[in-house]
Model the fold of this input.
Amino acid sequence: MVASSDQRARFLASGADDDLPIIDAHHHFFDLARNYHPWLSDHPVAFRYGDYSAIKRDFMPADYRRAFDGHLVVGSVLMEGEWDPRDPIGEMRWASEVAREYGLPSAAIGQIWLDREDVGEVVAAYRDMPLVRSVRHKPKAVAREDHHPDFAAPGSMRDRAWRDGYALLANAGLSFDLQTPWWHLDEAAELARDFPATTIILNHAGLPADRSAEGLKAWRAALDRLAREPNVVAKISGIGVPGQAWTLELQAPVIDGVIAAFGAERCAFASNFPVDSLCASFGTIFDVFKAAVRERPALERLALFHDNAARWYRLAEDVPQKWEPLLR
Done:
């Protein structure tokens, strides 16, 4: 699903936030009574946002529509929810059923383990599923203090077995959604150079959790190096900070930094719901996103909230492939 020509025209004429069509480029659905997600189903968990117990519940299209009420969400991209690792393909079969029944999601990103023996089978299955446009496998990563320039652990982006699996994506027409901390982005840049036919979609802005001046400077330098690779784009999502309100003051340095590194034609906003509901409401998240770019031209805002995601995840053939000349 994408914005209609009337919706596009209305926004371009008014420039009003309420008229801005959105494709949410990264969210989840959970049906815990039916499906097994170990991190939600087994025991209390704590990750980068702290205690995740509050999202150990179903989150389905009706819940999602209630969450985004007040914003013009016309389409969405479902991110795999780290469910039963014994059956990664099953989640995308289920997601396809959900899409047929509820009209969302518009596209999906499937779970994969690029270094497992079943990688070829999973790639082949996803190639034949119309809903699936990309895959995600979080490569092996370490804490910043343990990282070094020659890092090449098993399961990392420099691991030979992992790269052999990655090499299968281009011929299957699949992109790769990358979630990794920013100090691993030089490895991602190498991956992009070595496999230029595969688009890398950086998740969550490279995880800039450290908002100190030094932390943001180092993050931005890594982001700038990655952005030199033309086959890499970036999602601005998942940028909450535990214990801090989701405000424009907090998030503007990250939002501005990603757009400055990649250009507005290579960035997209996303909710990461319901995970980011641990930090803010959907409305607050997108109110801040909109406020951060309100002074930009209308076509640029349309690209950030709608067109880029539609293009990356191949939601419509008539979405502009290159809109920069229209801004002049």
Notes: The two ends are 29 Å apart (CA to CA). Residues 321-328 have pLDDT under 50 and may be disordered. The longest helix spans residues 88-102.
